[in-house]
Write a structure and sequence with these properties.
There is one protein chain. The chain is an alpha/beta fold. It is built from 4 helices and 6 strands. It has a 6-stranded mixed beta sheet, covered by helices on one side. Strand 2 and strand 3 form a beta hairpin. Helix 1 crosses helix 2. It starts with a helix and ends with a strand.
Length: 132
């Protein structure tokens, strides 16, 4: 099991009832790679990739439950989430992992777990902070 898999598994154990995770970090910090690790922990067999152009990808857990992966990098304004019916995803009770959540403004649910990834200059070491 990789270090990212361990961190993903730990996060799921820390927040067993939470379903919305807002994953922030600079470009190249490993947001998508971390979400891939979490999806492995959930038993997702699909190819997990960044939905940069489609905004959202849907996967299935090992038990068939939906998992939604958002990449908001190309969002020009938060209101664009209204066009895709974001409420149906964010308030579904299913897992939602959101890259670039800061671009959604106030549309991210108040109870979302914030995941902050920082990268140390020079060494490239990553730090993960979970904020409830």
């Amino acid at each position: 099991m990789s270090e990212l898999d361990r961190i993903g598994a730990q996060m799921l154990l820390m927040f067993p009832e939470e379903r919305v995770f807002a994953v922030s970090g600079p470009m190249g910090a490993g947001k998508t790679t971390f979400i891939q690790a979490i999806c492995r922990q959930l038993g997702v067999k699909d190819n997990v990739s960044s939905p940069t152009f489609s905004i959202v990808n849907e996967y299935r857990t090992g038990s068939g439950e939906p998992v939604f992966h958002f990449d908001l990098y190309r969002l020009r304004k938060p209101e664009e989430l209204l066009d895709i019916g974001y409420e149906d995803y964010f308030f579904s009770g299913d897992y939602c992992f959101i890259e670039w959540p800061e671009l959604a403004g106030m549309l991210i649910p108040a109870g979302a777990v914030k995941v902050e990834i920082t990268v140390e200059e020079g060494s490239g070491a990553r730090t993960f902070v979970f904020i409830r």
